[in-house]
Amino acid sequence: MKIIRALSNPKYSSSFVLGNIFPNFFRKRYVSKSKKIGLNKKYFILSFDCDTEKDIEVVQEVDSKLRKIDIIASYAVPGELLKLGKNVYSRLHKNGSEFLNHGYLSHTSYINESRSYISTLFYDQLTNDQVRDDIIKGHHNFIDILNDLPLGFRTPHFGSYQKPNQLKFLYSILSELNYSFSSSTTPVTAMWNGPIVRTGSGIIELPVSGCHDYSARILDSWNFRFSPTRKLNEEDYVNQFTKMIDFFTNPNSSGIFNIYADPSQVYDWEMFFECMKMTKSLSNISFSKLLQEVLSE
């Protein structure tokens, strides 16, 4: 499957190779793009994909730990799980946490005995009508559960849905629903276009951040802790996170440190929270407040 995806999107797959070989080039390009759009602060956005029932169990604990160090996170929750965890997620929403539409159907199974994950739904394997239906159903469910209008979206397993025609279709639907932003692209988008991308549909895309030494690789809990094919480990996560903090705190740097994780993958990982403490020099902000601040300047 990975080979097929690579062949069908050669620029995207080649970016992984280039990112490993020329990380310095892409970091300089990123800073240049950031300054060109007038980013005068250095921002930190932390979001969580809450894809399993296990996340419902632990998300309040994770949120509380983060608030103790003055970090407020955003949450992307599939509609079925938003409904199942209504009481938990409603409390977080009422406490000021931002929520993103994450589609409706649950797309991951968690095996408690082995602490492993099985992905069960990918947008690139659905028809356009099925993708549209899942987004719209998630949209209406969001309103019903949280009594609020969603402004942002994240594609389920977004790394598999990165072709230009797929993103164009996604943004057209989000535009119809009057969304402001999406955070549904990998660091490859940031490598070439910077931290904020204005799309043809008017949707602002905010790609997640990559690693310091591997520009195209997502800095997340899955890649470093749970992926069965991972070549990097928890110590590598801390190392790459620390290097990214050093990069962003450089006086000549600029941009958005936009990372995500799954609550069930970090609630018992103390070093994750130690890493979060390193972000105090950056301005912690939500996606929607970032756009308000940046676009009003």
Mean pLDDT: 94
Shape: globular
CATH architecture: Alpha-Beta Barrel
Uncertain residue ranges: none
Q: Which series of helices and strands comes N to C?
A: HHHEHEHHEEEHEHEHEEHHEHHEH
CATH topology: TIM Barrel
Q: What is the domain total for the residues?
A: 1
Sheet bearing the most strands, described?
5 strands, parallel
Helix fraction bin: 40-55%
Strand elements, count: 11
Judged by helices, strands and strand pairing, the structural class is alpha/beta
Oligomer: single chain
The CATH C-level name is: Alpha Beta
Radius of gyration: 18 Å
Condensed summary:
The protein has 297 residues and is of the alpha/beta class.
Quick tags:
globular; TIM Barrel; five-stranded parallel sheet; 297 residues; alpha/beta; four-stranded mixed sheet
Descriptive overview:
There is one protein chain. The protein has 297 residues and is α/β, with parallel strands linked by helices. The protein has one domain (2-295): Glycoside hydrolase/deacetylase (TIM Barrel, Alpha-Beta Barrel). Helix content is 49%, strand content 14%. It contains 14 helices and eleven strands. The chain has helices at residues 2-8, 10-21, 23-36, 53-68, 79-84, 86-94, 128-146, 164-176, 187-193, 221-226, 234-249, 263-266, 270-277, 287-295, and strands at residues 42-49, 74-77, 98-101, 108-111, 116-119, 152-153, 181-182, 197-198, 204-205, 255-261, 283-284. The strands form three sheets. Strands 1, 2, 3, 10 and 11 form a five-stranded parallel β-sheet that branches. A four-stranded mixed β-sheet has the order 6-7-9-8. Strand 8 and strand 9 (204-205) form a beta hairpin. The longest helix is centred in the middle third of the chain and has 19 residues, at 128-146. The mean pLDDT is 94.
